[in-house]
Specification:
By secondary structure, this protein is an alpha/beta fold. It has helices at residues 3-13, 20-30, 33-38, 41-45, 52-57, 62-77, 91-94, 127-140, 155-165, 187-195, 211-223, 238-248, 266-273, 283-289, 312-324, 329-336, 340-352; strands spanning 80-83, 102-108, 116-120, 146-149, 170-173, 197-201, 227-230, 252-255, 278-279, 327-328, 356-359, 363-366. Helix 11 packs across helix 12 (238-248).
């Protein structure tokens, strides 16, 4: 995208009454943002939802002054800009009707990856939440997912740190412009994140981390990913809003259960109870539901370990598969009398030990 195109897109987004949905509608009908400003009033009137007030606002030339200031900032700071029609724009976000027309970013990110997971939760994370989040990312690392979160205190930063520890790409979606950082105490993580991932926002350099911006940015966290995982949440909170948005976008939502007496498990337990989220007890739950396959991952093949020590239930499953050959997950769980969610977790563990392998159609067999 050249500077002239970007200038007109920025100007269009600054027109009073033009949001992402209206901007896309105008661009679709006129062919480009520049064409919108050049279009005749009669043509614009024929577009659904475009009334006299908006037609008047489109004649406001001050929007170009604001656009020029933002364009100067973008060029001066070397900000990356992703346009919703670009190939490099996150694919899943393209299918969200209210997805941002423009995304601004810094770092080294690549959305051709496919397996994108958002991890969200309370800022008041407990030791239980920290341990679960770290273990979750560790167990998912072999699938090389891109980990998305909001770079806030609590669950967000634990997820980012765990991703960096396992050399996974991770992106923080910000609720303000690229001219600042919130919270400031997380400045120490910026350099490392930008080496393999980075930061993204829809907000201009004139935007501050206001309360409403956090809610708005949550739709990016929800829409960009294949699944959203709520690790811990109180009865109310931003992560529950993100879960609702993910459901609206027809994405998979998972919640980590906790004790009914724990304040920061209340939100997760409610999501599960009302069937707005699937139970997550381990990485295996996500792997099973999303039908991820270790055979497809671009890492060296797992070699079978010698003299592996198996737990009693692992041994039961192993002996059954060795005798019966390839079997369906549901059949394994039923025959071995182990709950399906636990069977899924055991199978993943055994797979990582190099004892079994998954086959298409949720089949498993001994290696």
């Amino acid at each position: 995208m050249n500077s002239t195109e970007l200038l007109h897109i920025l100007a269009l987004l600054r027109v009073d009454g033009v949001g992402d949905i209206v901007a896309k509608r105008l661009i679709h009908h006129c062919g480009s943002a520049e064409a919108v400003f050049q279009a005749k009033k009669s043509h614009l009137k024929s577009i659904d939802g475009i009334g006299t007030v908006l037609l008047h606002n489109l004649k406001d030339t001050t929007v170009f002054q604001k656009a020029e200031q933002e364009l100067a900032f973008i060029e001066r700071e070397g900000i990356k800009v992703l346009y919703y029609q670009d190939v490099s724009y996150p694919e899943r976000l393209k299918h969200c009707v209210d997805g941002p027309v423009l995304l601004f970013g810094t770092g080294n990110f690549d959305f051709s990856n496919r397996r994108i997971v958002s991890i969200v939760g309370t800022r008041q994370i407990t030791s239980y939440g920290i341990d679960f989040c770290k273990k979750l990312v560790e167990d998912l690392a072999c699938f090389n997912p891109l980990i998305v979160s909001g770079f806030a205190f609590g669950v967000d930063i634990v997820a980012h740190q765990a991703a960096m520890e396992h050399e996974l790409q991770t992106i923080g979606v910000l609720a303000h412009g690229m001219n600042q950082l919130y919270p400031k105490s997380h400045q120490k993580y910026v350099s490392k994140m930008e080496k393999n991932g980075g930061f993204m926002t829809e907000f201009w350099s004139t935007s501050n981390p206001d309360k409403e911006n956090f809610v708005k940015r949550n739709r990016i966290v929800a829409g960009i990913s294949e699944a959203t995982i709520v690790v811990e949440s109180a009865e109310k909170g931003g992560s529950l809003i993100t879960a609702t948005m993910a459901n609206d976008y027809n994405r998979d939502v998972f919640a980590v259960p906790g004790r009914v007496t724990d304040r920061y498990s209340k939100g997760c337990n409610d999501l599960i109870k009302t069937q707005r989220a699937q139970v997550m007890t381990s990485a295996a739950d996500l792997v099973y539901q999303l039908n991820w396959d270790l055979v497809d991952k671009a890492i060296p093949s797992i070699q079978k370990q010698l003299f592996v020590t198996l737990e009693a239930e692992e041994q039961l499953i192993y002996d059954y598969l060795q005798k019966q050959g390839k079997q369906l997950l549901d059949v394994i769980a039923l025959t071995c009398n182990i709950p399906i969610f636990k069977t899924s977790s055991l199978l993943l563990t055994m797979e990582l030990k190099g004892l079994i392998r998954p086959l298409p159609g949720k089949l498993f067999e001994v290696i």
